[in-house]
What does this fold into?
Amino acid sequence: MATSQDFVNWICAEGLNPEWLKHLFIAENQSLHSFSKGTTHSTIYFPEVKAFHICLPPLNEQRRIVAKIEALQTHSDAAKQALDAIGPLLERFRQSVLAAAFRGDLTASWREQNPDVEPASALLERIRVERKARFIAAAGDKARATAEAKARAAGKAWTEADAATVVEKARAKAEAKYVEPEPVDTAGLPELPRGWCWARAEEVSDFITKGTTPDSTSMTQEHGDIPYIKVYNLTMNGALDFSIDPTYIDKETHAGPLSRSGCKPGDVLMNIVGPPLGKVSIVPTAYAEWNINQAIVRYRPLGGLCSKYLSLTLLSDSTLVWAQRRAKATSGQLNLTLEICRSLPVPIAPSPEQKELVSAVNRCLNLNDALNQGAAMMEQMVRLNQSILAKAFRGELVPQDPNDEPASVLLERIRAERAAAPTKKNKKSPRPRKPKTSAHPPSPQP
It folds into this structure.
């Protein structure tokens, strides 16, 4: 086997166990960095490599150390494999719970005890009225702000009567322009429990939009005005993890170029670029204003639709499969369009049953805590392996045998063998001679 110039090869003498040396370098990984030089690329040069010092035990003790490390790490690896299997098991269990929830199984007894609850169809009608009213009001507010800014820029007077005229005209225009969302195509969708109904996501949410990528000069790390959410801040369990590489944008960018992608606490976010798709999180209350990048879509539930309930519907396999079947694949990526996100069929339960369903899911499954415990156990396994190596090279892992040949005698013998070995001189291989060329190409052979 040959290696490139980026490697150093240790050809171990008979008195040095290669496996022992390997474990030593793994144990000393952090301290080896003190020999490195460079900023962009860290390099350990050969003079520093030759200057490494190691504590050499007797050869038999080296073998005992290797055997003990490998025996302990075999148990550790088995435990790690078991921990690695927990994540997929929890995910399957979570999806089973969500499937049962949206079949109505988890709230079946609640429906029997509450037969007179208002059906979801009545809730949906109220949400539609609210949606239209918000659309018309937003058009009036926008027209008023634009007209007032123009008047003041031109030095003209601006009165409440002027504002009322502009708002009234804009609202009338918006009302005439407003189009109700199309009803859900229920073909292929499962039958819902009594009192439930299907709705398109755009029917039960304020304007659904995706984020934008700002100029790099507008973004800062660790601290800033407005937290800027990226896909890796979303999770598969509904929680937002902003501790991962937190990024911020300034207020001017948030209120200007990125105003359409602003978020508020309670908004539900979903990634639209995968794999994997299906990362969903609720915007927390840590900040009053947030913003999102271009790979995330924002849902803002309207009155009567619980944010947690909506996040659970987006996390369920049935919703994800529906979206993936309509997603566009580009260079190995699955991309959801805004039209797909707005058309998502959402099973709507009556408001009181939504809260009961969320409580039932939480009682069945606290996935976030389970995953955190699994991550903590994995960290413990890493620390355990490090402590095993630390004890091994402090001489505390295996007992010493007074009958072992001392390492000093071993080292002297190795030095004597090296001194007696003939010195190898590197001989440069001769450069291949270029064949003589003729002014005329050779004639083709028959």
User: Anything to note?
Assistant: Residues 103 and 192 are 7 Å apart (CA to CA). The radius of gyration is 34 Å. The chain has 14 helices and 14 strands. The first helix runs from residue 18 to 27.
